């Protein structure tokens, strides 16, 4: 059974839950994160079902989720967590970059992935990026994954996507109605997000201040009722707001 850890950080520090069935890896990851300022590891789950239960108790901002776990695997747990806690960010933990499994993770609601054997500084930077509202996926991989989503959707539905909008979202609605929620500039920024551009790249493309882009991205994520920019891009494609063509 997973454990709740004592809170030793400031109340405003992002709360992190680690879900992995290997105790040595959980312990190593917890020690790594606890050794950095700005992280508060509040709990550890031994499987997906345990992770869901701890999310109810602890309500973390971020879950680091292993894909292969007993009882309830990471993908099923991610779907369940995102359904009940749509604003919780999930990063999957994986041993290798396999496009099919990462695509399934995005469909389940994950913001991206962390390689288990990645250097400590890369793991920390990926977590910090996603907590800042940036994508932990590099641009090339993000484009590959989103294009695969579109291709799967076109094959399965003729035009649509394999994604289902959150049941808590007001946009089980037509994409035209959802587009009306976004300003012309926000749609422009969203289109660049779908292309995999970072905030800095968007700043250069649009010739605007970095703070302006951050504000647009924050409003887009809020209006689309998702937890991160990766899922904002996923929803944009799924609902036909932005075309990848």
Main beta sheet strand tally, sense and closure: 6 strands, mixed
- Identify the CATH architecture of the largest domain: 3-Layer(aba) Sandwich
By CATH reckoning, the class of the largest domain would read Alpha Beta
* Radius of gyration over all CA atoms, rounded: 18 Å
Helix content: 40-55%
- In DSSP terms (H or I, runs of 4 or more residues), the helix count works out at 11
Distance between the termini: 47 Å
Number of domains: 2
Core attributes:
11% strand; Rossmann fold; 2 domains; alpha/beta; 6 strands
Layout of secondary structure:
Blueprint: E1 3-4, E2 15-19, H1 23-34, E3 40-45, H2 48-58, E4 62-66, H3 74-84, E5 89-94, H4 99-108, E6 112-115, H5 120-131, H6 139-157, H7 175-179, H8 184-194, H9 199-206, H10 210-224, H11 229-238
Parallel strand pairs: 2-3, 2-4, 4-5, 5-6
Antiparallel strand pairs: 1-3
Helix pairs in contact: 2-3, 3-4, 4-6, 6-11, 8-10, 8-11, 9-10, 10-11
């Amino acid at each position: 059974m997973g454990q709740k850890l004592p809170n030793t950080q400031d109340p405003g520090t992002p709360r992190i839950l680690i879900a992995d069935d290997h105790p040595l890896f959980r312990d190593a990851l917890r020690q790594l994160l606890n050794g950095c300022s700005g992280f508060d590891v509040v709990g550890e789950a031994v499987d997906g079902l345990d992770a869901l239960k701890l999310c109810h108790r602890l309500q973390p901002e971020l879950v680091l989720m292993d894909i292969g776990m007993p009882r309830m695997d990471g993908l099923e747990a991610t779907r369940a967590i995102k359904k009940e806690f749509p604003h919780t960010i999930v990063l999957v933990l994986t041993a290798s970059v396999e496009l099919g499994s990462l695509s399934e993770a995005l469909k389940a609601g994950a913001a991206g992935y962390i390689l288990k054997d990645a250097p400590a500084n890369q793991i920390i930077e990926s977590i910090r990026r996603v907590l800042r509202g940036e994508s932990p996926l590099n641009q090339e991989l993000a484009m590959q994954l989103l294009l695969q989503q579109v291709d799967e959707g076109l094959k399965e539905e003729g035009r649509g996507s394999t994604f289902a909008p959150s049941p808590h979202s007001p946009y089980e609605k037509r994409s035209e109605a959802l587009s009306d929620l976004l300003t012309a500039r926000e749609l422009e920024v969203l289109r660049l997000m779908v292309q995999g551009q970072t905030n800095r790249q968007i700043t250069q493309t649009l010739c605007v201040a970095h703070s302006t882009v951050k504000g647009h991205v924050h409003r887009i994520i809020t209006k689309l009722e998702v937890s991160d920019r990766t899922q904002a891009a996923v929803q944009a494609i799924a609902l036909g707001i932005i075309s990848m063509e």
